[in-house]
Specification:
CATH topology of the largest domain: Adenine-n6-DNA-methyltransferase TaqI, Chain A, domain 2
CATH superfamily of the largest domain: DNA methylase specificity domains
Helix content: 25-40%
Number of domains: 2
Largest sheet: 5 strands, mixed
Structural class: alpha+beta
Shape: elongated
Mean pLDDT: 87
CATH class of the largest domain: Alpha Beta
Strand content: 15-25%
Number of helices: 10
């Protein structure tokens, strides 16, 4: 922030000024003195230990080299440069941090919030080819405004009150996101839950298919040469997402073997337990093939609509079936084509399938609208947080 943006009457000081602060650079103690049994002082090494306001102890140290005290401002000085926290208690600090100890003329939280308001400027001071870092001399050179102490306290109180309201708004957005997720689960559950009372015949998924096939096993590249390949990460919310594509070069015969058609269903056969067995409906124009961790299903459209089959696979009954058949490894789960083909699926008449798909598409459209509004609101909330700090240090919060 430029000096001329600060209100008239505020003093300007550097962190090097003994009147306002002392800067203590961290130093890492011998690794043999670290522990996770709460022996000694909490030990903070860098930004990874930071919480929203206070750092979170994960390690302790019995032989600290450099110490921060309660209410010291902790600032990350090594990759990344600039993030801040407030020290809650006497603690050991490693070389990724510095402690800024305010004098009686400077409120620690006023200093904290001011440094947060210029975090991007501090980050630009960072230097280094391997990782960015900031020196003690650079820290000491930072200019800060110094209004009267009572005004500092009023500014801090205003910032924290507005921040509380912003966090309340953020909490409402989180609740709304959970509500959207619940809607997405409830709609298919409502539809497919009536299968028994409607007397829909249950058939094996494999009996509705004209093709069930594993994808191509060849290393893909980000270079847009060859044909785009759909991978595990492209299966999202029951659809095939065409962002973050990679490409493979294939001979003509192989290319034709794996080319996708509109209406093909792609299933994750190997993924994390919560994602394995999830499917996406391919509806794009253009040429795409699919990777070996996916299974392609092609539906006989005289018997079923691909969108109906895809919706059922991703519904709670479909997910429960996958959970009962999947095999788990260390961090992943697997399901094979035979097991997918054995999935029982209710089969209403084609006209009813189309009606169900239209209903679920309508729900999906409403959900997408809600999600977009939530994303816009979240961006506005994030911008508001920065605006509060900017206004605070222009003296506008107290006008």
């Amino acid at each position: 922030m430029a000096r001329n943006e600060w209100p008239e009457g505020w003093k300007v000081r550097r962190l090097s000024d003994d009147e306002v602060s002392e800067v203590i650079m961290g130093q890492s103690p011998p690794s043999a003195t670290y522990n996770e049994q709460s022996l000694g002082l909490p030990f903070f090494q860098g930004k990874a230990d930071f919480g929203p306001l206070f750092p979170i102890p994960r390690k302790w140290c019995t032989a600290p080299q450099k110490v921060a005290l309660e209410n010291d401002v902790l600032i990350s000085v090594r990759a990344p440069v600039g993030p801040t926290n407030l020290c809650r208690e006497k603690s050991c600090i490693g070389r990724g941090l510095a402690a800024i100890r305010a004098t009686e003329k400077l409120e620690s939280r006023f200093l904290l919030y001011f440094l947060r308001s210029i975090e991007s400027d501090i980050a630009r001071l960072g230097q280094g080819s391997t990782f960015t870092a900031i020196t003690k001399e650079q820290l000491l050179g930072i200019e800060i405004p110094l209004p009267p102490l009572d005004e500092q306290r009023r500014i801090v109180a205003w910032i924290e009150e507005l921040t509380r309201r912003i966090e309340e708004a953020r909490g409402l957005r989180q609740a709304a996101r959970q509500e959207v997720a619940a809607i997405m689960l409830a709609a298919p559950a409502e539809v497919f839950g009536q299968a028994e009372q409607e007397g829909w015949e249950a058939v094996r998924l494999g009996s509705l298919l004209t093709l069930i096939q594993y994808g191509v096993s060849i290393k893909a590249s980000t270079e847009p040469i060859g044909v785009a390949v759909i991978r595990m990460g492209n299966i999202k919310d029951g659809r095939v997402d065409l962002t973050d594509l990679k490409y493979v070069g294939l001979p003509s015969r192989e290319r034709m073997k794996y080319l996708l058609r509109k209406g093909d269903i792609l299933i994750n056969r190997t993924n994390s337990p919560d994602l394995v067995g999830k499917s996406g409906l391919f509806e794009a124009d253009g040429e795409f093939v699919f990777a070996s961790y996916l299974i392609r299903l092609r539906v006989d459209q005289d018997k079923a609509t691909p969108a109906f089959v895809n919706a059922y696979i991703n519904s709670r009954p479909g997910r429960n079936y996958v959970a009962s058949r999947r095999r788990r490894a260390i961090a992943q789960a697997n399901i094979n084509a035979k097991e997918i083909g054995g999935m029982p699926i209710p089969l209403p008449p084609l006209s009813e399938q189309r009606r169900i798909v239209a209903y679920l598409d309508g729900v999906q459209a409403r959900v997408e609208t809600l999600r977009r509004l939530q994303e816009e609101t979240e961006a506005e909330i994030a911008a508001l947080s920065g605006a509060v700090l900017a206004k605070a240090f222009r003296g506008e919060l107290l006008r």
